[in-house]
Amino acid sequence: MNKENKELLFYLLLFILGLLLRLYKTINIELEISLRIFRYLIPITTINLIIYWLIKEKRGKQIPNNFSCIKLEINKEGINDIKDIGERWEILINKIVNMIPNFMFIVKVGKSKHVNHEDIGYDLTLWLWGGKNNDKKAYEIKAITEAIIPQFNARILDKKQSVEELRKIIMFKQPSGKGKIQAVKKVLNLPIAAKRNTVFLRGIKFSMPMPRAQGLKIGYVWPGNKNLPVRVALTDFLSHIAIFGRTGSGKSTTAKRIITNLWLRGIPSLILDYHNEYRDVIVPLGGEVFTPGVEISPLTINPLKVRGGIDVDEHIDFLIGIFEDTYSLTQPQCYMLSKALKNLYTMFDPEKTEPTLRDLIDCVKNLKEHSVSEYEIKKALLRRIEMLTKGQLGRILNSESVWDLERILDRPVSIELAHLRNDEHRNFLSYIILKLLYDYRVKKKSETLVHATVIEEAEKIIRKKPEGQISIGERVVSELRKFGEAFIIISQSPLNLPRNIIINTATKIIHTIGATSDARLLQGQLNLNKEQCSILLSLPHSCALLKLKDQPEAYPIKIEPPKRTIKVNDLLLRSLRREIWGSIS
Ligand SMILES: Nc1ncnc2c1ncn2[C@@H]1O[C@H](COP(=O)(O)OP(=O)(O)OP(=O)(O)O)[C@@H](O)[C@H]1O
Ligand SMILES: [Mg+2]
Q1: Which ligand is nearest to the CA of 222?
Q2: What does the pLDDT look like over 220-244, one tens digit per residue?
Q3: What is the arithmetic mean of pLDDT over 146-173?
Q4: What residues have a C-beta under 5 A from ligand 2, the ion?
Q5: How many Cα atoms occupy the beta-carbon half-sphere of 232 within 13 Å?
Q6: Helix, coil or strand: residue 6
Q7: Pocket of ligand 1 (CB under 6 A)
Q8: In the CATH scheme, what architecture does the domain 67-187 have?
Q9: Residue 553 pLDDT class (50, 70, 90 cuts)
Q10: What b/e readout covers 363-372, taking b as 16+ CB neighbours within 10 angstroms?
Q11: What is the pLDDT of residues 8-67, one digit of tens each?
Q12: Cis amide bond preceding 466, omega within 30
């Protein structure tokens, strides 16, 4: 018997007891005094019953019917490692959430009766609403779930059962937990009390809205209850994340935590690792680390290769922008480079051949100079391009591309750049990688989050330019948000980045900042008062202020470093991803 029926039975029994006692009283008058206490039993239980039915009716009417509901159950018997299955299944569900645009959230109803595991319950109900063809999507989810993890039984509930499930959830506060109840209330359009919590950090008050129930956990509210996790919605990743803080404040550790959790949800990341410090997380995650320019795990990229579907003129424009931003080319140098590139792609049909930097040098050499100044321009330009064909960078750039972009973008990958001799080399290579990413994403197109790129020392590639100009890095970051790519932008000082980047990164994580001027810039962005702002200069270790997209103010959180050993089987994850994405798209 469920909780609701038990309550009903209790009221009925009380009612019957009241009736019996009333009857008894009329027969045996002497008992009157001792029974006075029961005098109100009938009116009380009657009122209770009326209220009960009224609430039930009202709740029932508020439930919309444009939704579908799937109940997923697993029977422990016959399964050796139920926890393992459960973990994989959670990953799968998270993938499904990403695949279906109108899939709003998952309600965890609780542990199944069949499952006795102490940590995880595998009896879940998924709700789809607010979109079209919810029933069709429900069958699609059922098919996917059962195909990948046959141990699961996915049952699509009919409307009556679904309404009953949903009603039970709000009437009996099931599942427990404010976030979930609020989420259910949201479906039913019931008012949600805008509760605010308060935290004090070093005596300074910060207020914060109720943390989100859904999203990627990045830490927990601090100081305070460790059980109050802080989450960033996956959709907010597409408006990018900025992490700021002085050296040693914990920026990379925070980024590591984020990429680890993203990968647990099947979303890979690419790191432009300026200090070669991500290997320790990428390797346990089953990802790959490339060290371009050295013999072990090398990487070769031909910047002149025009990938299928990319317009040659746009490719040329992009390349000129990269040269201009890296080597501060003058306008006449850019013009000459543009002429040489046009000649290059006339000589080499990009659909058939792959010209190399050596070919570009020949094209520049073949340009006729009409004056001494043109000769000087040509010489300066040749010096720049020739640098790219020598030494470490030459080994990376001056050959055919043997870079399988698909493979690099479907797992966590770090590209180590610290060993490259100078910043110009590092920046040039980073730009070329961003360009490849840009071409790939624009071609593939995705509205949901599919991949994240971490840019360390972001000010070097997302350059601040004079008013009215936009750097190549800024262009890539701004445009790719529409194509399923998230950027995690890391810098010591927000002042070094273009203003638009600061304004448009929806999620900001601020560790201890090194300069008052930076703190002042962030004060407005994070909606802090003077006192709160002062703490930015001396936040405790592993603590940061977090500003989420739709929350008005920033508040303090603690970030846990990622665990080194990740239990998820990478091979299975990869094949699952292919299977799911392949079968849907
Ligand atoms: N949340 C955390 N919990 C525990 N230790 C942390 C945390 N964040 C950072 N640390 C430790 O602090 C040290 C510096 O952290 P990290 O390398 O992330 O800083 P950073 O801001 O990236 O520095 P840099 O600007 O020099 O790259 C590391 O030893 C790291 O282990
Ligand atoms: Mg770092």
Answers
A1: 1
A2: 888 876 667 888 988 899 999 999 9
A3: 69
A4: 252
A5: 31
A6: helix
A7: 245, 247-253, 275, 492, 542, 559, 561
A8: 2-Layer Sandwich (3.30)
A9: confident
A10: bbeeeeeeee
A11: 787 778 778 777 777 766 656 555 555 565 666 667 777 777 777 766 655 544 445 566
A12: no
Residue 465 token pair: 């330019």
Structure tokens at 473: 């890095």
pLDDT tens readout for residues 271-326: 999 998 898 899 888 888 888 877 665 678 889 988 878 899 999 999 999 999 99
Two tokens, residue 444: 């593939």
**Domain coordinates of the chain in residue numbers?**
3-62, 67-187, 230-299+403-584, 312-392
End-to-end CA, the chain: 44
HSE at residue 531, side-chain half, CA atoms within 13 A, is 7
pLDDT, averaged across the chain: 79
Specify the DSSP element, H or E, that contains 101. Answer: none
Output the residue whose Cα is nearest ligand 1's atom 16: 250
558 alpha carbon, closest ligand: 1
Question: Given CA atoms 306, 311, 316, 319 in this order, what sign does their dihedral have?
Answer: negative
Please tell me the number of the ligand nearest to residue 280's CA. Answer: 1
Cα 538 to ligand 2 centroid, rounded to whole Å: 18
> How many whole angstroms separate alpha carbon 29 and alpha carbon 35?
10
107 in Cβ contact with 127 (< 8 Å): yes
CATH T-level topology, domain 230-299+403-584: Rossmann fold (3.40.50)
Judge contact between 280 and 424, C-beta under 8 A: no
Atom 7 of ligand 1, nearest CA residue: 542
> Which residue CA neighbors atom 14 of ligand 1 most closely?
248
Give the burial string for 41-57 (b: 16+ CB within 10 Å, else e).
Answer: bbeebeebeeeeeeeee
Domains 67-187 and 230-299+403-584 share a fold: no
Phi, psi of 270, deg, nearest 5: -120, 130
Residue type, 17: L
- The helix (H) or strand (E) run that includes residue 490 is strand 485-491
Judge whether 464 and 498 are in contact, CB under 8 Å. yes
